C-alpha cells in the first residue's frame, strides 16, 4: 500500500535531478493479445494460439524477475471475453488449470507468489480449484508476485469498490470524508499491489480493453507490434529499455 504512494509521488524525489526514470519498473502489467491472429496466420484454430501463448508466460515472468521486477500482472480473461464462442471460452478457462498443472511446482520452487484478480466465483469449478490451490500453495513465497487478471474488468472493479465503500458508509463504519485516493485503492481487487509502472500490450492494438483503469493513471504505455505467442525475452528487454529512457512527470515539470 505504501509502495503505491511512493510510486505515485515519485516525482517529488526524482524530477529535479533525473532526466529519465533509469530505474527498473517495479510492476509490469501485460495485455497478452494476438493469440487468435497468431493461429490464423498459421492456418490453425484460434485455440492453438491460446495454447502457444500460455507457453510464453513462465519464460517472460522469469525474465522480468531477472530484471528485478517485483510484480507482473497478466490479463488472461476479461469480463468481455464471455462474448466469444463457447468452445473458445471453455478452452480459455481450462488454461489456468493446464498452465498450473505444469508450471506450479517450478513457480513454487522459484519462490513466485501466484495471485488472482477478478470475479472468480463466476468461473467453472475446475478453474477456481486450480487457481485457489496455486494461490494457497505459494502464499508464503516472497519472490516475484505473478498476478493473473482472470474474469477481470476495470469498470466492474471500480463499481465493486464503490459498492463496498457505500456499504461501509451506510453502516456508519466510514463517513464520506474518509473517501480518498488511498482508501479507494484499498477497495480495488489490486489492493496490496503497487500501481503498474509499465503497461505492455502486444499485437499492435492500441487500447486498454477495460484493463486496470484506475491503476494505470500514471503508468508508462508500451505497445509492441508482435503477437503474444511470439513475444520473447528480447521484446521484454526492449520494453524495459524504452521505459527507462522515459521521464515520468506525474503532472510536475
Ligand atoms: C489474447 O488473444 C488472449 C485473450 C483475449 C484471452 P486474442 O484471443 O484476443 O487474440 P486476437 O486478438 O483475436 O488475435
Ligand atoms: C484483452 O484482449 C483481454 C485479454 C488480453 C485477456 P481482447 O482481445 O479481448 O481485447 P479487444 O476485444 O481487442 O479490445
Ligand atoms: Mg485480442
Descriptive labels:
253 residues, alpha/beta, Undecaprenyl pyrophosphate synthetase, six-stranded parallel β-sheet, 45% helix, disordered N terminus, binds 3-methylbut-3-enyl trihydrogen diphosphate, binds magnesium ion
Give an account of the 3D structure.
It is globular, with a radius of gyration of 18 Å. By secondary structure, the chain is α/β, with parallel strands linked by helices. The chain has a domain at about 25-155 and about 195-245: 3-Layer(aba) Sandwich (Undecaprenyl pyrophosphate synthetase), CATH 3.40.1180. The longest helix has 24 residues, at about 85-110. Strands 3-4-2-1-5-6 form a 6-stranded parallel sheet, sandwiched between helices. The chain is built from 9 helices and 6 strands. The structure holds 3-methylbut-3-enyl trihydrogen diphosphate (2 copies) and magnesium ion.
Describe the structure concisely for a colleague.
The protein has nine helices and six strands.
Strand order of the largest sheet: 3-4-2-1-5-6
Write down how many β-strands occur, each being a DSSP E stretch of 2 or more residues.
6
Unreliable parts: 1-16
- Biggest sheet details: 6 strands, parallel
Architecture per CATH nomenclature, i.e. the level-2 architecture of the domain at 26-153 and 196-244? 3-Layer(aba) Sandwich
**How is the CATH topology of the domain at 26-153 and 196-244 named?**
Undecaprenyl pyrophosphate synthetase
Round the Cα radius of gyration to an integer and report it: 18 Å
